[in-house]
């Protein structure tokens, strides 16, 4: 059997907001306009944008898959008094909630199948929204943006002892394009996108194929979901702190990788990193605190 993994350590790296500074660009310029258009939020566009950005960029749910993120955005949005005052009616999201609870490969291929099977108008609307996002990302992100400083250097340093994989909730073809365009795909053994399942499932798959043992697996990410995925498979976690990405990558390059390879990462060092990371993103929206 062809095994892409040959080294004794495994490092999983998230892509958007972690390796690349693409979160703001993708969410603000691509996701938000598509969401306002496809969910008929024109009358409350200001609140829709603020709520969407809170869920996807500036809170503990940062970086979650687009479909649960949509559910959470609409839930919070339709609770806002300003939105209630406009008399907008929240769409019934039950068919989407059902699909999310049954499916782990939360991407367009699985959603297309669901649409063909159920012929549900809400699923059709969700699919049109999701396809519009991909189109906007293709058009606006285009050739992409370079990775954060110290990403390339870190990838090179990791090569000596670790197999590196991309572990992301972004569609696979966008990931391949972005890593290839920046010429850093050469450093990775495998790219797992949203069609491969959750981040936990992707890590599990890699751990199993390469027979990696405890304390030999590290996840690098910028969102609490990345930390959760790491903990679920008993992996170590290095946070790229939102807003302090350059410093984080520099620290990973100068210190974190060595500690991981020397087996001095687990314990105190790991705890300190997580504690700091947890202070970066809020759980409660500012508009609720000000009520
Ligand atoms: Mg991310």
Would you mind describing this structure in some detail?
The protein has 291 residues and is of the alpha/beta class. It has two domains: 9-21 and 147-278, HAD superfamily/HAD-like (Rossmann fold, 3-Layer(aba) Sandwich), CATH 3.40.50; 23-141, no CATH class. 55% of the residues lie in helices and 8% in strands. A five-stranded parallel sheet has the order 3-2-1-4-5, with helices on both faces. Bound molecules: magnesium ion. Magnesium ion binds at residues 14, 16-18, 63, 221-223.
Helical amount = 40-55%
- Would you state the CATH class of the largest domain? Alpha Beta
Radius of gyration over alpha carbons? 19 Å
Low-confidence stretches: none
Features:
single chain, 291 residues, alpha/beta, Rossmann fold, 2 domains, five-stranded parallel β-sheet, 5 strands, globular, binds magnesium ion
Secondary-structure topology with pairs:
Blueprint: E1 9-13, H1 23-38, H2 45-56, H3 66-79, H4 81-85, H5 94-102, H6 108-118, H7 121-141, H8 151-158, E2 162-167, H9 172-181, E3 190-192, H10 199-210, E4 217-221, H11 224-232, E5 236-239, H12 245-262, H13 268-278, H14 286-289
Parallel strand pairs: 1-2, 1-4, 2-3, 4-5
This protein binds magnesium ion (MG).
């Amino acid at each position: 059997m062809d095994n892409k993994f040959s080294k004794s350590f495994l490092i999983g790296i998230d892509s958007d907001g972690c390796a690349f500074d693409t979160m703001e660009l993708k969410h603000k310029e691509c996701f938000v306009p598509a969401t306002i258009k496809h969910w008929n939020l024109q009358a409350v566009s200001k609140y829709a944008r603020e709520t969407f950005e809170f869920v996807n960029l500036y809170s503990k749910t940062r970086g979650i898959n687009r479909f649960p993120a949509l559910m959470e955005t609409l839930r919070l949005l339709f609770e806002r008094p300003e939105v209630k005052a406009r008399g907008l009616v929240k769409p019934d999201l039950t068919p989407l909630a059902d699909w999310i609870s049954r499916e782990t490969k939360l991407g367009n291929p699985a959603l297309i199948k669901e649409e063909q099977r159920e012929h549900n108008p809400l699923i059709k609307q969700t699919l049109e929204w999701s396809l519009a996002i991909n189109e906007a990302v293709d058009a606006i992100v285009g050739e992409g943006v370079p990775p954060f400083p110290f990403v390339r250097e870190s990838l090179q340093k990791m090569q000596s002892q670790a197999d590196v994989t991309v572990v992301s909730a972004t569609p696979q073809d966008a990931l391949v394009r972005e890593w290839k365009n920046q010429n850093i795909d050469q450093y990775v053994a495998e790219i797992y996108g949203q069609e491969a399942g959750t981040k936990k499932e992707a890590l599990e798959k890699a751990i199993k194929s390469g027979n990696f043992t405890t304390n030999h697996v590290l996840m690098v990410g910028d969102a609490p979901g990345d930390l959760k995925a790491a903990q679920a498979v008993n992996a170590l976690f290095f946070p790229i702190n939102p807003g302090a990405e350059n410093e984080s990558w520099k620290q990973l390059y100068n210190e974190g990788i060595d500690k991981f390879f020397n087996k001095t990462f687990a314990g105190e060092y790991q705890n300190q990193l997580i504690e700091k990371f947890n202070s970066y993103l809020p759980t409660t929206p500012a508009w609720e605190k000000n009520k």
